[in-house]
Amino acid sequence: MTRPIVKDGKLGVSSQLVTEKKEIHQDELFAPHQEEKSSSAKRLKPCNPKRILVEGDPGMGKTTLCQNLAFRWGHEECTGECKCAPCVHSWTFVVYLTAANLKGFTDIHTAIRDHLLRESSIEEVKAALKSSQSNTLFIIDSYDEGFKDNVLLRDLIQGR
Description:
Structural class: alpha+beta
Order of helices and strands: EEEEEHEHHHEHH
Strand order of the largest sheet: 1-2-3
Organism: Capitella teleta
InterPro entries: NACHT_NTPase (IPR007111), P-loop_NTPase (IPR027417)
Number of helices: 6
Protein name: NACHT domain-containing protein
Distance between the termini: 18 Å
Pfam family, one: NACHT
Radius of gyration: 17 Å
Number of strands: 7
Helix content: 25-40%
Shape: globular
């Protein structure tokens, strides 16, 4: 699994299979990366991760990155100047929540309605997510502050 990380103030990428870290631009987060097939083989295969974990020490910019991605999706138009495709603008919907926002909820629709779309009905939220199910980006911030006993967060991470 390829994982972008924030370390020493720089955004980088690391993998369980690839130990090399490199600095990447935030527009490259969603681009396919290369990943080794095995520790003994040096052949590379394209890797298009469905889940990205951004790790880093406190104050390194993880929340700023998450908020910036959501802001750019909602307030900017894609100019085609992104360093690579896909960029944050290629998603139909971007949903930004903290892990704590998911606590106590059993379904994502109700959590989104209660925290983001209070004027919408749960049925409207369900319909919107269903219409773009494979093209919705969930940005879940502050995992470390809300992961304990968080069934919905676990289900989202596992793709349920």
